[in-house]
Amino acid sequence: MIISRAEIASAVSAYKTVKRKSTVAAAGFGPADSFERSEAAASLSGLVTSSPEPFYRHALVEELGRQISEGRYFVPTHEIVEKMLGRLIVEAAIAA
User: Fold this and answer.
1) Fewer Cβ close by (within 10 Å): the C or N end of the chain?
2) What domain range includes position 50?
3) From CA 17, how far away is CA 5, in angstroms rounded?
4) pLDDT per residue over 33-47, tens digit each?
């Protein structure tokens, strides 16, 4: 799985938004629960339901599988460290 810096920032900001909303609701400011689907959520659900084929690229998966089986697949160390640190940041934000 590829997790970009933008995805990490998006996850952190989404968590902070949800956390703030739940705090307001717990304080009694919202008289009733409501649900509004965002445009992004609507487009994503439409994409998932309208796509009859798998959500991955067969050629890429086969190529990576071949490289792994031949021992030629390599991920630069700095990319691994960057993803690990990104996950730690997200986990720390969620735990806070």
Assistant:
1) N
2) 39-96
3) 18
4) 777 778 877 777 766
